[in-house]
Amino acid sequence: MTSDPAQPFRTEGEPSGRAFRIGLLGHGTVGGALAELLPSRADHIAAITGIRPEITGVHTRSNGTTAAEVIAGADLVAELIGGLEPARTYVLEAMAAGKHVVTANKQLLAHHGEELWAAAREHGVQLRFEAAVAGVVPVIRVLQESLSGAHIDRVTGIVNGTTNFILTRMAETGATYADALQEAQQLGYAEADPTDDVNGKDAAAKMAILARLAFDTPVHITDVAYEGIEHLTGDDMAYAKDLDLGLKLIGTAERVEGGIAVRVHPAFLYRGHPLASVNGPYNAVTVESEAITEITMSGPGAGGPQTASAVMGDIISAMIPPASTPETTQSLAVVKDVESAFYVHLEVADRPGVLAQVAQVLGLQGASVKSVVQKGLGENARLVMVVHPLLESKMLAAVELIAGLDFVRGRPRVIRVIEEQFV
Ligand SMILES: NC(=O)C1=CN([C@@H]2O[C@H](COP(=O)(O)OP(=O)(O)OC[C@H]3O[C@@H](n4cnc5c(N)ncnc54)[C@H](OP(=O)(O)O)[C@@H]3O)[C@@H](O)[C@H]2O)C=CC1
Ligand SMILES: N[C@@H](CC=O)C(=O)O
């Protein structure tokens, strides 16, 4: 039986509700959790909506049921496979067949979002994706509905649970990077291949989706500059403590002169920053706009049951009246070179004039030093400083010059510092 959006609510004497058939593509961490959660909530959902969701088919690579069979037997398809193909093809086939789609797949949307949203509009079906960004935190709904009329200036977030979990473990328990990553995998936070988590690409995809909704302009993953946490060391954490900084993987999407800028990178935050206390697998997204000043939403950003609960919310929304993602109306340029403050970590031979020479090179690029910590003596000293905001290109030029100074040992490490900047 197919759903009738014109008759969504329960009528007296119809306690069990009409059936709404869910086809599941993927039965791993999230798909498996949804298959447990949905039946346990079906009575309640039927009581409040008059419609009873039922899983009528499951497709994986190994279970013998084809995706075509699952799609044919469903009113709504939940795509929980991940990756670009065959997920894209299945989603397009489902929508062409008039089926609503719910997906948690951020890479799919960051690569092919405009094509998929256009297909949803063309076929008059819903394509919902709350679980694709920040797990169970309802940031997509807030941007699409509550803030759809707002002029948003900036979206800042911790949008990857795995890396936030790793950084929290390293800072709080002194765990090694490798051990913390392994734990995140065991807890179901990481992607099937965790490379995209730790290199920043998972967060970049999520920021592309948020930027698209916040600024009403197409944003592709290739528009997002990203770097990950693989190169961070326990040493960086230790110095950060001395400078009263916390280390996070931060995504930023903001209006800048000439367009928008979207990026993901590790950043030090001063302790009072709203994102500094977001720990473990939690995510948080701050939206800034002159009219609303600033709101921050936070909650579990990864994990099977948590993500399945966001998928279930989308399923319930799709069972009731229609919603669509409209075409963008803007075509904003994406600017890559923007200003930031930086933490600079140098291994130096401690001789008279070292700090003055480093400061001089920074000064030539327009950088001024905000704070400095020096540890150790002789050939193995460490010089760690925070510099005030300057263009990233200028900072990179300064780093190249500093790396060439004869007293500098090894490669300087440079990490952005996010300063208070709320409107
Ligand atoms: N885990 C999390 O915390 C979160 C995950 N997500 C997203 O949810 C989606 C699913 O993630 P998750 O459940 O963790 O992934 P898993 O790797 O745990 O599960 C993937 C499922 O898809 C099946 N599958 C994989 N490749 C194919 C294929 N080519 N054809 C058919 N089925 C396939 C797998 O079964 P088999 O190998 O037997 O084919 C498995 O059942 C991803 O897009 C992910 O980014 C979003 C938010 C949080
Ligand atoms: N691997 C992702 C899962 C949710 O999107 C993460 O760690 O955030």
Element-level helix/strand string = EHEHEHEHEHEHHHHEHEEEEHEHEEHE
Structural class: alpha/beta
The span between the termini is 51 Å
Architecture of the largest domain, according to CATH? 2-Layer Sandwich
Bound molecules: NADPH dihydro-nicotinamide-adenine-dinucleotide phosphate, the ligand N[C@@H](CC=O)C(=O)O
The CATH superfamily of the largest domain is Dihydrodipicolinate Reductase, domain 2
Assign the CATH class of the largest domain. Alpha Beta
- General form: elongated
Please describe the biggest sheet, giving its number of strands, its sense, and whether it closes into a barrel: 10 strands, mixed
> Can you tell me the number of structural domains?
3
Q: What integer is the average pLDDT?
A: 92
> Helical segment tally?
13
The number of E-state strands comes to 15
**Amount of beta strand:** 25-35%
Portion of residues in helices? 25-40%
- Specify Rg, calculated over alpha carbons: 24 Å
Low-confidence stretches: 1-15
User: The CATH topology of the largest domain, please?
Assistant: Dihydrodipicolinate Reductase, domain 2
Domain ACT: 343-416
Pfam family, one: NAD_binding_3
Cofactor: a metal cation
EC number: 1.1.1.3
What does this structure look like?
- Its cofactor is a metal cation.
- Catalyzes the conversion of L-aspartate-beta-semialdehyde (L-Asa) to L-homoserine (L-Hse), the third step in the biosynthesis of threonine and methionine from aspartate.
- Keywords: Amino-acid biosynthesis, Methionine biosynthesis, NADP, Oxidoreductase, Threonine biosynthesis.
- Belongs to the homoserine dehydrogenase family.
- The protein has 13 helices and 15 strands.
- It has 423 residues and is of the alpha/beta class.
- The protein folds into 3 domains: 18-132, Rossmann fold (3-Layer(aba) Sandwich); 139-300, Dihydrodipicolinate Reductase, domain 2 (2-Layer Sandwich), CATH 3.30.360.10; 339-418, Alpha-Beta Plaits, CATH 3.30.70.
- Strands 6, 7, 8, 9, 10, 11, 12, 13, 14 and 15 form a 10-stranded mixed sheet that branches.
- The chain starts with 17 loop residues before the first strand and ends in a 5-residue tail after the last strand.
- The model is unreliable at 1-15 (pLDDT under 50).
- The structure holds NADPH dihydro-nicotinamide-adenine-dinucleotide phosphate and ligand LTNE7NMQ.
- The site of ligand LTNE7NMQ has 11 residues, from helix 6.
